[in-house]
């Protein structure tokens, strides 16, 4: 690896980890803007290291030198074009959207935009870790825990009237319009590398304090202000790894049940827990491939085992048959390839 690439990679990872650390401190008001600056800087350095390694030339990340002027390195925009030449590439689009927000933040600081961009930020965090491993074989697991890669959102209830009083009508309209455009873009792209849809509940009530989200509709069919439920910290909602899940289940079931790793795998398979990447029962940390499980899953499994006769045995037989079919299919495919 080129010496310059190594330096760029080290600084890129530092910027990325600083972005995560800053964002995961809910008490810091500047965290959205700070995250955008550090996140885009991390990507710029990573892309330049990638370009150098692909071309084997340090000068490939510099513009043509002009007479009597210092040499300038290429911009993030141009680096993106080199590495992701397709304009509609979801990773490129994700970085471009956050870069645009970074540039906007120079002129106006709006913490409320965290609600709008939360899913896009989370997708960008995962994309970086994935490409770092894919391009350079580097993993962040020794420097950041899986829970750190999940951004912590601490968005308080947003009152459109308060936003308008604080920033003015123009800014309120911008937030509403940006919320719609980002939601529409995530839906149209339909790719988790661009933005992860954040599930939210919409509540219309005469008592705003009882609502998860407040919606206001202007007269004559004006814009709708939609606000999103606070995403949860997976270290709290999905605290168990496989071994911890097994130990918790065994403790809950007591000595009257003999429960081992195979039994747990069988029940996970029977319930199709790992099918959705993220659910109330299961969360896949994509950059590290770590599976995390929730307390709700413990309750569900205990309920099934205690109320359904021979549930564990039946799950074991079903899982065993599935393993057998998979093995036979693999052997058949290997036989055809020889």
Strand % is under 5%
Which sequence of strands runs across the widest sheet?
1-2
Given the structure, what is the number of helices?
A: 12
Q: Specify the helix fraction band.
A: 55-70%
Main sheet specs: 2 strands, antiparallel
Count of the domains: 2
Task: Spell out the blueprint of helices and strands.
Blueprint (H helix, E strand, L loop, with lengths): L2 H21 L7 H25 L20 H8 L6 H16 L7 H24 L23 H8 L1 H21 L26 E2 L6 E2 L8 H4 L4 H12 L7 H10 L11 E4 L4 E4 L1 H13 L3 H27 L1
Antiparallel strand pairs: 1-2, 3-4
Helix pairs in contact: 1-2, 2-3, 2-4, 2-5, 4-5, 5-7, 6-7, 9-11, 10-12
Q: What does it look like?
A:
By secondary structure, the chain is mostly helical. It folds into two domains: 3-234, no CATH class; 238-337. The chain is 56% helix and 4% strand. It contains twelve helices and four strands. The strands form two sheets. It has a two-stranded antiparallel sheet. A two-stranded antiparallel ribbon has the order 3-4. Strand 3 (282-285) and strand 4 form a beta hairpin.
Short description:
The protein has two domains: 3-234, no CATH class; 238-337. Helix content is 56%, strand content 4%. The chain has helices at 3-23, 31-55, 76-83, 90-105, 113-136, 160-167, 169-189, 234-237, 242-253, 261-270, 295-307, 311-337; strands at 216-217, 224-225, 282-285, 290-293.
List keywords for this structure.
single chain; 338 residues; mainly alpha; 2 domains; two-stranded antiparallel sheet; 4 strands; 56% helix; globular
């Amino acid at each position: 690896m080129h010496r310059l690439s190594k330096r760029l990679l080290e600084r890129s990872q530092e910027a990325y980890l600083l972005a995560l650390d800053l964002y995961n401190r809910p008490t810091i008001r500047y965290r959205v803007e700070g995250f955008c600056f550090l996140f885009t800087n991390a990507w710029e350095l990573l892309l330049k290291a990638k370009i150098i390694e692909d071309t084997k030339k340090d000068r490939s990340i510099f513009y043509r030198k002009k007479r009597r002027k210092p040499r300038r390195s290429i911009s993030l925009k141009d680096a993106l074009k080199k590495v992701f030449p397709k304009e509609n590439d979801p990773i490129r689009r994700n970085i471009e959207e956050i870069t645009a927000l970074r540039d906007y933040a120079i002129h106006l600081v709006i913490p409320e935009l965290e609600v709008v961009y939360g899913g896009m930020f989370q997708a960008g965090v995962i994309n970086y870790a994935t490409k770092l491993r894919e391009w350079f074989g580097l993993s962040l697991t020794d420097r950041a825990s899986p829970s750190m890669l999940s951004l912590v959102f601490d968005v308080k209830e947003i009152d459109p009237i308060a936003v308008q009083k604080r920033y003015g009508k123009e800014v309120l309209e911008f937030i509403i319009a940006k919320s719609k455009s980002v939601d529409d873009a995530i839906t149209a792209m339909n790719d988790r590398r661009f933005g992860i849809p954040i599930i939210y509940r919409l509540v219309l009530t005469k008592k705003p304090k009882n609502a998860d989200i407040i919606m206001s509709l202007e007269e004559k069919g004006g814009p709708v202000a939609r606000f999103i439920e606070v995403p949860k910290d997976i270290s709290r909602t999905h605290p168990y790894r496989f071994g911890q899940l097994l130990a918790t289940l065994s403790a809950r079931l007591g000595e009257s049940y003999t429960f081992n790793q195979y039994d747990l795998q069988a029940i996970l398979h029977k319930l199709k827990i790992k099918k959705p990447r993220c659910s109330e029962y299961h969360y896949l940390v994509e950059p590290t491939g770590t599976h995390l499980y929730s307390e709700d899953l413990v309750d569900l499994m205990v309920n099934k085992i205690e109320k359904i006769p021979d549930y564990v045995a039946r799950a074991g037989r079903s899982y065993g048959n599935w393993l057998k079919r998979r093995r036979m299919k693999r052997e058949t495919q290997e036989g055809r390839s020889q």
